[in-house]
Design a protein that fits this description.
Helix content: 40-55%
CATH architecture: 3-Layer(aba) Sandwich
Number of strands: 5
CATH class: Alpha Beta
Distance between the termini: 14 Å
Strand order of the largest sheet: 1-5-4-3-2
Structural class: alpha/beta
Number of domains: 1
Radius of gyration: 12 Å
CATH topology: Udp-n-acetylmuramoylalanyl-d-glutamate--2,6- Diaminopimelate Ligase, Chain: A, domain 1
CATH superfamily: HprK N-terminal domain-like
Order of helices and strands: HEEHEHEHEH
Length: 111
């Protein structure tokens, strides 16, 4: 699955669509950015409720391919601007992290 397909499969709203499309290798779900820095991998989708520009900085640091902000959290313009500069896709879901993580796991593992 590619990043561009996430919105369709997960029923996400696209907030930042200037990104380099590539394969989604996995996902990491966390709201603690230091945990993301220690454990997320390149080409992961970061699933979180942290909606601020520091989330983009951490995603860039670990090489995450996209960010999914859950629970319908408002995403500020400076986060979108930072993601556009770093070419990281940002999506929004009204569902929680558990649900998004479970659906994505099933899609990536053929379940």
């Amino acid at each position: 699955m590619n990043i561009s397909e996430l919105a369709t499969y997960l029923k996400l709203e696209i907030l930042q669509e200037t990104f380099e499309d590539g394969a989604v290798q996995g996902a990491y779900t966390s709201d603690l950015l230091s945990d993301v820095m220690a454990n997320a991998h390149t080409a992961d989708v970061l699933i979180t409720i942290q909606a601020h520009k520091n989330t983009v900085a951490v995603a860039t640091l670990v090489g995450a391919s996209a960010i999914v902000v859950c629970n319908g959290r408002p995403v500020p313009p400076d986060m979108i601007d930072a993601a556009r500069q770093e070419k990281i896709a940002v999506f929004l879901s009204d569902r929680d992290q558990f649900t998004i993580s479970g659906i994505l796991y099933g899609l990536l593992h053929g379940e």
